[in-house]
Amino acid sequence: MSQKVNIAIIKTAKSRLPETDFDNLPFGKTFSDHMFIADYSEGEWKNFQIVPYGNIEFSPAISALHYGQAFFEGIKAYKHADGKVTIFRPEKNAERFNLSAQRLCMPELPVEIFLQSLAELVDIDRDWVPAKENHTLYIRPFMFATDPYLGVTPSSSYRYMVLTGPVGPYFSKNLKVKVETHYSRACDGGFGFAKAAGNYGGSMLPALKATQEGYDQLIWTDSKEHAYIEELGAANVMFMIGGKLLTPSTRDTILKGVTRDTVLTLARKWGVEIEERRVSVEEVITAIKEGRVSDAFGVGTAATIAHIAEIGHDGELYTLPDPAQREFSNKLLYTLNEMRYGRSADEFGWNYPVGK
Ligand code: PLP
Ligand code: COI
Q1: Ligand 1, pocket residues at CB < 6 Å
Q2: Distance separating alpha carbons of residues 120 and 137, to the nearest angstrom
Q3: Which atom of ligand 2 is nearest the CA belonging to 75?
Q4: Quick one: pLDDT at residue 169?
Q5: pLDDT tens digits for 306-344?
Q6: DSSP-assigned letters across all residues of 285-316
Q7: CATH of the domain at 198
Q8: How confident is the model at residue 247 (pLDDT cuts 50, 70, 90)?
Q9: 126-176, pLDDT tens digit by residue?
Q10: CA of 170 to the centre of ligand 2 (A)
């Protein structure tokens, strides 16, 4: 059953907006004035609140801290030229939120409450949504286990929260990426398809090693043979090879990205031939050598459309076509921005309106 809930609102006495530099917004460091909170216990969600952004207090024994019963989502809100604010496809994130919850033995949140929490929080902080091109309000819903109990069993109490903050692009440059053939992000039967906190904790050491070798990001491969491409950092990955759009099909090791679905929907509309299947490292490297790769990019909420400029594999570095000249990914970026900032028709109904 799904219904709207009453949200208790305590507004901040003093907004931090005046001291926020909107010309300098590194990803994830600036938070808006308010945050959303709800608690789960005795089998139900309760205590819905919007309060000033600030620290929270829990027992040091909460199971989220010890056993990683925690996950999150990432979504963006856009400001249109007429001041209207819309959130991009939050229904898809609501769906995935509950997939993550199921996999981690955590309670689902009714889709209606998820959407209401986002819309009301963003509306209260709508002045925090940047008006500048390529800038957005990043929305971070998350849930974690709050039982102060060290037994390795599912918690009986949980906290759901939403933070927001204005952001610029996550990547400021085209990417030099390394095909990772030792570490894995996810494994068969694991939880790579969920936005579990632990997936990201485990990715940091391989990513750090790659940056020490001069790379910006990793292309993750399958954990059994390291022969098949899965994702690019915290984004899905796509290649245009011989005029066909090629992307790994989703499976339990791959996050089913909202941006991935968005791009495939647009490509289908444009009549581009799409192949969603297992993509081997070998076929991509061979195609690069033969000059058949015209485009390669990561797709994600934070990443948007991130051009891959160079790929390192097996001691070789391969240079891809000049990102500025790429037809498909640049058309995608343009079309998506036009749509999300309300400058073209919202033909798929992807812009979820906030407030009046
Ligand atoms: N893959 C991973 C591991 C991610 O963390 C993300 C980011 O959310 C994505 C893919 C892209 O998903 P989406 O387009 O829904 O943001
Ligand atoms: C997003 O794209 O929203 C993500 O979750 C990536 C994030 C880990 C920076």
Answers
A1: 74, 231, 234-236, 255, 257-260, 300-301
A2: 14
A3: 3
A4: 84
A5: 999 999 999 999 999 999 999 999 999 999 999 999 999
A6: HHHHHTT-EEEEEEEETTTEEEEEEEEEETTE
A7: 3.20.10.10
A8: very high
A9: 999 999 999 999 999 999 999 999 999 999 999 999 999 999 988 889 999
A10: 9
The radius of gyration of the chain from alpha carbons, rounded to an integer in Å, stands at 21
Q: Which among 72, 259, 266, 305 is the best mutation to test ligand 1's pocket, defined by most ligand atoms within 8 Å of the CB?
A: 259
Q: Is the CB of 301 under 6 A from ligand 2?
A: yes
Of the three residues 169, 202, 220, the one that is the final residue of a domain is 169
Question: Which pLDDT value is given to residue 171?
Answer: 86
Average pLDDT over residues 4-31: 96
Residue 88 lies in a domain: yes
Two tokens, residue 177? 């990426």
162 and 19 both lie in a single domain: yes
- pLDDT at residue 2, as a whole number: 56
Q: Tell me how far CA of residue 116 lies from CA of 111, 222, 272, 275, in angstroms.
A: 8, 37, 36, 36
Q: Which residues contact 340 (CB under 8 A, 6 or more apart)?
A: 76, 78, 86, 88, 350, 351
Q: How many CA atoms lie within 13 A of 54 on its CB side?
A: 10
Q: Structurally, how many domains does the chain consist of?
A: 2
